[in-house]
Design a protein that fits this description.
The protein is built from 16 helices and 30 strands. The strands form seven sheets. Strands 13-12-11-8-5-16-17 form a seven-stranded mixed sheet, with no helix packed on it. The chain has a seven-stranded mixed sheet with strand order 21-25-26-30-29-28-27. It folds into four domains: about 60 residues, Phenylalanyl-tRNA Synthetase, Chain B, domain 1, CATH 3.30.56; about 190 residues, Phenylalanyl-trna Synthetase, Chain B, domain 3 (Phenylalanyl-tRNA Synthetase, Chain B, domain 3, 3-Layer(bba) Sandwich), CATH 3.50.40.10; about 60 residues, Phenylalanyl-tRNA Synthetase, Chain B, domain 1; about 190 residues, 2-Layer Sandwich (BirA Bifunctional Protein, domain 2). With about 550 residues, it is α+β, with helices and mostly antiparallel strands. Helix content is about 30%, strand content about 30%.
């Protein structure tokens, strides 16, 4: 999690009053951040990944001012219309989305430029997942000729002067010669073309996901107007990033102007700084928190968190990336009410605790596999259909989220193997062999109160030059022997596995597992170079027998 250092003098200037160190320590810690300490004029704060809007002095001051009842309620930002246009070419399939803006009338100093660079980098590290999901560029507007083209090109055909280098080079050499190219080249592994922003006079503005051009992308203290682009694999993600950057610059004194982003079949106008409306149930929030707050009290507490509440509807700022569910509003009220104001109550129940039998067995399995030199991973229950089905060559009926915030996490996983394949994909530069396992929950439609059947499963992957059906079967044999469970195995078919190298495992006449060797097309879909042996075992079914 990134740390930011805020000047106490600047913070107090933005808050409009002075505070003792103890007052600031108390309020900052209760805002939902982790205060590392105050030393002299420096306040060091650890910002949690769910609040990227707090990564700048401006965003943090805005939130703290509201939380401390200095300037509460919804912050609004004007966006002036303009005729600036960015054209998105169909070739940018590896990073197909962008959102852009222009901010004018800035007064930049060396300190504010440094802060702008810091938030840009920290935002890309957290919200942009180390530039894998999104990355951002800021350019002096005076150097750019519109319309700007966002297009993918062969880097060996492009010459440009990367920011921070002394000479013009081929774009194909950036990964070896430029520090950002070396640092982030794994993000672009397997790309044959790279996205570029190129203006109307064919000036190269940047090479993604690496660096701006020295000629068009160097912001200094003489810069008054800037062009901002956020590009990535998810449109909602880049829109939120743009909202955070533009509102930060607005708080620096800038004036925001819109940009038309033209896709193949439609155009969008960005940034979209209109608050998002949510319908909420205050009785539900009161019940979950054990409170009896009135609607008027809710209105005050939501205003303290920078929202606007009225008659069951709440408006959320466009730069808040963390609001996804009613539960998030429960947390907002808990923070605004003050965790220190909740009264601890000992429940009036008398029970004898006992660890769940399945949890005992899961821990035993984890210990057995760890003894074989395997690494345990924890992966998300939320994922996407591309990972669960398309990349795995399957067509499983998935449970989708009704109000998913983005397309990366919009379904509940039906099996764990794709999650482990993603782990292997993310660790392609690590040492081999890679032997990983995960124990977790999967979800499918079932005859339950919620209509969703939840089960615990174990998945194991072995990735190495020598990995095959025999390797994974030997591991499974050892595990079942240590659990004292007998099983039978029969050849079967499964689209994710190589025909003839996949089997169905049966325990007491109940099919409980697939074991086999991943299909080459699946490996190619995940960008994995070595064979992978896989086991997926239904623990709920096996231990219920």
């Amino acid at each position: 999690m990134p740390n930011i250092i805020i000047s106490k003098a600047v913070l107090e200037e933005k808050l409009g009053k002075s505070f003792s160190d103890e007052e600031l320590k108390d309020r900052i810690a209760m805002l939902g951040t982790d205060l590392d300490g105050i030393e002299g004029d420096n306040i060091e704060v650890e910002i949690f990944p769910n609040r990227p809007d707090l990564l700048s002095e401006q965003g943090f001051s805005r939130a703290l001012s509201s939380f401390m009842d200095i300037k509460t309620g919804l912050s609004t930002f004007d966006v002036l219309e303009s005729d600036y246009k960015v054209i998105v070419d169909k070739s940018v399939t590896m990073r197909p989305y962008t959102a852009c803006a222009v901010v004018k009338n800035l007064t930049l100093t060396d300190a504010s430029i440094k802060e702008l660079m810091n938030i840009q980098e920290k935002l890309a590290t957290t919200h942009g997942r180390r530039r894998k999901k999104s990355a951002y560029g800021i350019y002096p507007l005076e150097n750019i000729h519109f319309p700007v083209n966002y297009i993918a090109k062969d880097p060996s055909t492009i010459m440009f002067h990367p920011l921070g280098m002394e000479t013009t080079i081929k774009a194909s050499a950036v990964e070896e010669l430029h520090p950002k190219g070396r640092e982030y080249k794994e993000v672009a592994k397997g790309w044959t073309k790279y996205p570029f922003f190129i203006d109307a006079k064919e000036n190269i503005m940047c090479m993604l996901p690496y660096t701006n051009s020295h000629d068009t992308g160097k912001v200094d203290s003489s810069t008054k107007d800037v062009f901002i682009e956020c590009s990535g694999t998810d449109l909602d993600n880049v829109k939120v990033a743009l909202n955070i950057l533009t509102t930060t610059l607005s708080d620096m004194g800038g004036v925001i102007h819109s940009v038309e982003v033209q896709y193949d079949k439609e155009s969008i106008i960005t940034p979209e700084l209109v608050p998002t409306g949510w319908d909420i149930d205050i009785d539900y929030i009161n019940k979950r928190l054990g409170l009896t707050l009135s609607e008027k009290e809710f209105q005050k507490l939501f205003a303290r968190m920078g929202h606007e509440y009225k008659e069951g509807t709440i408006l959320v700022p466009a730069y808040r990336a963390d609001i996804m569910h009613q539960v998030d509003f429960i947390e907002e009220i808990a923070i605004a009410y003050g965790y220190e104001n909740f009264n601890a109550v000992i429940p009036n129940v008398n029970t004898v605790a006992k660890e769940d039998d399945l949890e005992i067995r899961k821990r035993k399995i984890a210990n057995i596999l760890a003894g074989l030199g395997m690494l345990e991973t924890e992966t998300y229950n939320l994922t996407n259909a591309n990972n669960q089905n398309e990349k795995m060559l399957t067509d499983i009926n998935l449970i989708t989220l009704k109000s998913a915030v983005n397309t990366e996490y919009d379904v509940l996983r039906a099996w764990i193997t794709p999650s482990l394949m993603e782990v292997l994909n993310n660790n392609r530069s690590s040492e081999y062999p890679q032997k990983v396992f995960g124990i977790g929950r999967v979800f499918k439609e079932g005859d339950t109160e919620t209509g969703v059947l939840e089960q615990e499963r174990l998945a194991i992957t072995i990735c190495d030059e020598q990995a095959d059906f025999t390797n994974i079967k030997q591991t499974f044999d050892y595990l079942m022997r240590m659990l004292d469970i007998e099983y039978t195995m029969a050849e079967t078919e499964h689209p994710s596995f190589i025909p003839g190298r996949v089997a169905r495992v049966t325990v007491n006449d109940k099919e409980v597992a697939y074991i086999g060797e991943m299909h080459p097309q699946v490996l190619n879909n995940w960008g994995i170079e070595y064979p992978v042996g896989v086991l997926e075992l239904n623990l709920s079914e096996m231990f219920n027998l």
